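User: I'm new to structure prediction. If I give you an amino acid sequence, what do you actually give back? Let's try with this one:
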Amino acid sequence: MCQYPLRGRHDLTNAPWAKLEPLLPLGKKPGRPPVHTKRHLIAGIRWRTRAGAPWRDVPERHGPWETVYGLFRRWQRDGTWHRIFEQLRVRADAEGLITWDVSVDSTIARAHQHAAGARRRGICRSSRQEVSSPSPTTTDSDAPGAG
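Assistant: Good question. You get back a string of structure tokens that encode the predicted 3D arrangement of the chain. For your 147 residues, that looks like this:
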């Protein structure tokens, strides 16, 4: 196992890393080993998600921001993060670390505004045009040219 120098108070220590490392995908490229370890890059991803900062602000100790983002995005697209999460969840559940309590309170459930009797488009009285009253009927005596 690689010794990772702890520099930040939120960096993964050796115990959590030992649980996470076997779940990570193996590298596919033969040849020269990568310059930055997955531990450094994952620490950069964790820093960025925790801080909420732009990718360009990831500290240099985690590697170039492009490399950190590239790993994050590649694993996001191919479902690696989801698989890691599911494996960690199953392991934690097997160890009894997750309590599955569900509580539903119907007093906070709200209906959509249309279900609550809100006015619909075009039905509002103020937006309807006034219907003009019909013109009075003309009689023979009212007609022009009559008598």
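You can read the tokens as a compact description of the fold. Here is one thing that stands out. The first helix runs from residue 14 to 20.
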